[in-house]
Amino acid sequence: MTELVFLPSSGMSQFRSQVFLPWSRLAHPKRGRVGTTGLAILCDIVRGERDPYKLAMHKHSRIRVSRQEIARSLEGTWRQELLFVLEQSLDLYQTYQQKIQT
């Protein structure tokens, strides 16, 4: 079980450094962690949503930054190779989470 807990941690570390870094301040601006808001946004990005204001609607009430700030942080270009890595990394992360819960 320890290995399963460690793997998502190392996987998320690689995920954060390669893909999530531009968006890492979404959920927890001071801590750079991926939380409920960040994961919801990432899942929608993988599903094809690109409108930053729609993505910002996932903001949890405990998040201090405004929806407008989140939307501004999501503006820019969407590089296909990074979207592919994002999709693969998110899939792997979710697989680890499912294995931990079973």
**Helix-strand pattern:** HHHHH
The fraction of residues assigned to DSSP E strands is under 5%
Mean pLDDT: 77
Fraction in helix: 55-70%
Q: Counting H and I runs of at least 4 residues, what is the number of helices?
A: 5
Biggest beta-sheet profile: none
Q: Which blocks of ≥5 consecutive residues have pLDDT under 50?
A: 1-7
SSE-based structural type: mainly alpha
Number of domains: 1
* Overall 3D shape: flat
How many β-strand runs? 0
| Radius of gyration, in angstroms, nearest whole number | 14 Å
Structure explained in plain terms:
- With 102 residues, the protein is mainly α.
- The chain has one domain (2-101).
- 63% of the residues lie in helices and 0% in strands.
- The protein has helices spanning 2-20, 36-47, 52-55, 67-73, 80-101.
- Helix 2 packs across helix 5.
- The chain starts with a helix and ends with a helix.
- Mean pLDDT is 77; it is low at 1-7.
Labels describing this entry:
about 100 residues, mainly alpha, 5 helices, disordered N terminus
Describe the protein's topology:
Elements: H1 2-20, H2 36-47, H3 52-55, H4 67-73, H5 80-101
Helix pairs in contact: 1-5, 2-5
Quick rundown:
This protein is mainly α and 102 residues long. The chain has five helices and no strands.
